[in-house]
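Quick check before the chapter quiz. The format below is the same one you will see on the exam, so make sure you can read both the input and the output lines.
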Amino acid sequence: MVNPDSELVKRRTVLGWSVGAVITAISGTMATLIGGAILAPVRSRAAGRAIDLGPAGDLADGVPREVTLRVEREDGYQRVVEQRTVYLVKAGAEVRALSATCTHLGCRIAWDSAGKEFRCPCHGGRFDAQGRVTGGPPPRPLDTVPTRIDGDRILIDLA
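Here is the expected output.
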């Protein structure tokens, strides 16, 4: 039988504590790396930028206006410039920005002023001025891009 006060027990205790400390350090490092990888995109989206699209008074109620945006984003080590098209639609005091991408297969839609609707040339999708599906195969309304009015200026928030 081993005496609890012997040198052998003390060495095992120290070894156990050392292994525990190493495992704790490794776990803490892994948690920091994984947490940073998960939270980095969230933080970059939260720190999005707003683009000024002009005065809200220039928009007519219910008549969409096409706006093409130049958006810079980081793609790995490169800075990529994309063009995104949105339609600004004013309804009373509210201004919405509708994506110009059809929700069916991603074709670019266009406003038909005679028919007073958005039309997709690929598969015949149709949307009203508020972006709701009125015909064709699109499964859901047009996507909206967050906008806000600051004074009389229309700002669009991009992530």
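If your answer matched, good. Residues 1-47 form one domain.
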